[in-house]
């Protein structure tokens, strides 16, 4: 007898996207430029010189995209709000047209019975704030709280689920350590500082929400369970550092009020001990935690890998996605149950999970066949079910992504969507994986039993 894969009746079935990756028209209707606007138009930063000027043109086609979501049977949708559409200079004057766009989107979702989850920061800091030091400026927490409050006041009557930050680790590692994401800096000193300022901003936004909001707010982190590549002591120590760096660096301050002890070992002088009052501000009770999961890290010691002295090992017999991530679904079960074990009972959402595999730029007459993506999704949805069976309080799953979109500096070449986008015509074509997901949703997961 196959195991019954039915999910709880109230489980939310969603897709996730982010503003700069899908909307296009980043400067329309009074919006200010963001750091991604600047980065994407800096020669050499983007694959194929791609940029978000048009992207999926969701800004003009959002009603059609909501129709696609209804056809899929989605019960929730996670999107992000572009800070510089709301506050073109980052602080100060509010741009009503920016708020109107998101209000219309949210109203269309609700008419379709789709619960909105809004992310306040998915990497697109207003350029005007970057010119004032951006996340390196200690005032950034206040800037963020001002922006967050503006959004709460305008939209909390119709948005029941809020996210402060998307993946602070990626912001710091990609944006300030390795320079592959905006704003493209490379400094361990900056990285350590930005981590702390992002976490303070998170805390400040949660505090602001308690003053004006009536629903739920949480944090989204990308987690990668780290496993030692061997039993050797140096591989085990490297695994601990990698886990501290990617996973505990954000969850420990948010949920326990301290940074992991390994941080100084990793960053040396660049790490600082922060004032206790800061840590208190960071540790605000949150209503849920969002977990983005793509892969695991089989970890080995490597003295040349700066500054972590650890590297993810390739697994010869494993399947890899187009972004070179090992397909390892057990890692999703492991990380969800690890969160419960380390941080206690907290409502969880899988706020992103999905894969880029090769799909042709133009859909064929009979659609887009993406069996590898279906296989990836089936394995990971079963892994979520397994985590629930083991006691993790998982309340929803958001597939990354609804549409093929701008995969940041990797450009449009990496396709994560279950709906294909033709970037010449902007035509949408649901892939086979969209039909697969619609069946999962319609059967509350029971179709995963086959
Ligand atoms: C996430 N990593 O980014 C983001 O939230 C999305 O905007 C993005 O499109 C999606 O995943 C797919 O990449 C990540 O290196 C980027 O571990 C890098 C990592 C994880 C997540």
Automatic annotation (TrEMBL):
Listed SUPFAM superfamilies: (Trans)glycosidases (SSF51445)
Top EC class for this record: hydrolase
Superkingdom of origin: Bacteria
GO molecular function: beta-glucosidase activity
EC number, UniProt record: 3.2.1.21
Protein name: Beta-glucosidase
A GO cellular component annotation in the UniProt record: cytosol
Enzymatic reactions: Hydrolysis of terminal, non-reducing beta-D-glucosyl residues with release of beta-D-glucose
Biological process terms in GO annotation: cellulose catabolic process
Family indicated by similarity: Belongs to the glycosyl hydrolase 1 family.
